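User: ok so my PI wants both of these folded by tonight, can you help

Assistant: No problem, let's get them done. Here's the first:
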Amino acid sequence: VLKRRRDGNICRSCTRRDEAAVGLKGNCRVGHSVLLPLYARVVKDAGLAAPGQKSGPRVLCAMAHFRLQNVEDFYEIGEVLGSGHFGQVRELTEQSSGTRWAGKFLKLQRSASSRLGVERRSVEREVEILQALPHAHIMALHDVFDSRAEIVLVVELISGGELFDFIAEKENLMENEAIGFLKQILSGVAFMHSKQIAHFDLKPENIMLSDKSAELPEIKIIDFGLAQRFTPGEEYRSLCGTPQYIAPEVVNYEPLTVASDMWSMGVITYILLSGMSPFQGDSDEETLRNIVDMKYEFEDQYFSATSDMAKDFIQKLLIKDQSKRMTAEECLMHPWIKPLTHRQAASRSRSSINMKNFKKFNARRKWRMSYNMVWVCNRLCRLQLLCKQAQEDEELRSCESDQEDIGIKPASLIRRRLSSNS
């Protein structure tokens, strides 16, 4: 009964929060002619129909669809929570319920050649993926607003900050406490992979806490901008992700699978336990070489308090052959995560993570993020100035061309008159 309608049309006049008539041959079933694209599921109608029509197919969205209204009509826009390359994140308050959400205001590319803004198709893909991932440890999508200039994603407000920042505030952390966080992450990743969706950008910055004041803070995986849904029989390759966390197959531009996320999980676990990045070099090029050459080890000065089971867990993820890595489901059954004996459970409760080194790593990471943000802002400013200068030059050339045409017309007119007189 369920079908994926990729080229469906939606009538602006028929749009409502939860349902709308499907456009057919340039007109909706009600008779309106203004049609806009929509990505949604077509479900057999359960007796409801458009006015004057018999029962038929209708577009129904499981979670959210592209609403063709202004976000200000439904939400009060609050303070800026953050900013990125292509937009801002702002606090929103739903007028009907008073519920607080986060709004991602994404500027769209004006043209295919534009360097500023995000591609519409990439936003549509992110929305489609988030709609398919209702899970306790994955950021929830609530609403989407669409205009020609920008798209606003209304998502779950996650106010607890990054997991690594939360851990860095602690004086000490035992392995079994770290495992509690990893189990939540793996639960979200396992659900994602069961839907044949890979995140492709798992890293500390994308692992957040919904509320760090809770007794057991809840993990939320965010930022699905690079995520991809796999189609059977089709290969997917991409040079995407953050150098420290990407798998060898990404560096080598080989066909990718959901196993690339499991490599990232291995890197995150290594850092969490030791405060060291396994493949970090002095440059991105050196880091990528270390990944391909599998250059990493468990140095005693960083792993002296780490259990053997934890090292075994990491080793079974940092494997070059994708097919031999543990899956997320297998990770959840690993003795380090789910001990089979009392002795195994006691081992992880006695082992601790290297907090002194972890705090240093997190401080360096935050500094690098700040530096990168300043560099990006400066680059965007330069691009905007270049675009403005190019536009002004184009306008100047257009004016000069018009003046040349005006100057030519009298002479050509004289010639025509002379030829007609002769």
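One down. Here's the second:
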Amino acid sequence: MAWPTLPAAAHPAVNHGRIETVTSPEVPSVPVDAVPAEFDRADPAVPAILLDVREDDEWELGHAPGAIHIPMVDVPARTDELDYDSELYVICRQGGRSIQVVEYLTHIGFDAVHVSGGMVAWQRAGRPLAADGDRQAKIY
């Protein structure tokens, strides 16, 4: 018995390789070019923190130098690692996770903003990248 041939088409909601920026009108957001290019946590003159909320495997492939890495699911348990007096720039791959984290952090009193376009936009803008180990940093 042969399998019948069925017509198939992609669902119109499927992205098909286009990278879209996730935004929310209720969440404070800034474009990548409004974010400092480098963060030095040891320098008290730099009152900002870049918080990367991607998963461990994403971080290992490429991240912004000087960023703090706390995966989204761990943020509520690790807010003691963040400084209430610093502005927090929150970044993920494209914006979905960072929007949720900014909503949470602002609700509990942090000055946090979502970085529009995430690490994909960071890489496209030619911002510095670092990777764990000997590999070349790349955001996928």
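The mean pLDDT is 84. The domain at 29-124 is CATH 3.40.250.10 (Oxidized Rhodanese; domain 1). Good luck tonight!
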